[in-house]
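Key idea: predict the complex, not the pieces.
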Amino acid sequence: MTRSDEVVRASTVVAAAPDDAFRLFTDEVDAWWRRGPRFRFRPGADGVMRFEGEAGGRLVEAFDAAGEDVYEVGRILAWEPPGRLCFEFRARAFAPGETTRVEIRFEAVAQGTRVVVEHAGFEAFAADHPVRHGLVGPAFGAMMGSWWADLLLAARRRAAERSAA
Amino acid sequence: MTPAVDLDATLSALADPTRRGVVELLRARPRRAGELARAFEVSAPAMSRHLRVLRTRGLVEEQRGGEDGRVRMYRLRREPFDALRSWVEEVEAFWGDQLESFRGHVARRRPGRTS
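Result:
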């Protein structure tokens, strides 16, 4: 039930082949993931970002060396080097069980690799989405998800209309 | 990455299927209470209660219409949409900044491969 209008997109081109880009993106995530409260997950204390495991693992920010004090950003849903990486993304403000989904694609281009981020915020709240299986409050999440999805759709249409005018 | 609208108020207002339907209909254009009551086959007082909930939670507003200004029209308020657009822009900016940082990181780690 993915509707493309609900996805926030961003992209860039990096000067490395896709397999290198994928490795740098994942192995060295802490080096490039920006610091500070806007980007990290605990105010006033930047931890260490890392992808733990591959598919089925998780993206975390760790706040101690033992790895016991961690913020779990989300599960890794797909780990397909060199082309694709997909993980859940749970912001600090989200309620338990609420999550969004980020997909990263690494596409070979003449200058290196085009890195495309698609952040699907809202259809992931739907009760029938695999992400939600086993999580609490699916009805609540579905209602909220469809509400936000609808608002998002409308907001983007308005923005498109304004920029076209 | 925090939605800036009052989610609790929004959610409780939308906990009811009729009220969600009203929001759907009002997206197209403002409508009269009577028109909404007929669309959902509920009594005028029942629709009036639904509209009051939507109004007090800030989702819709009332305006006077008709030649003599005696017709009450209901329409969606802009603010939830504006709040949402800000949120989308925030997410876009978040990933734009992250990718810029990643691009710089790759350039530093792979200096010989700069295009």
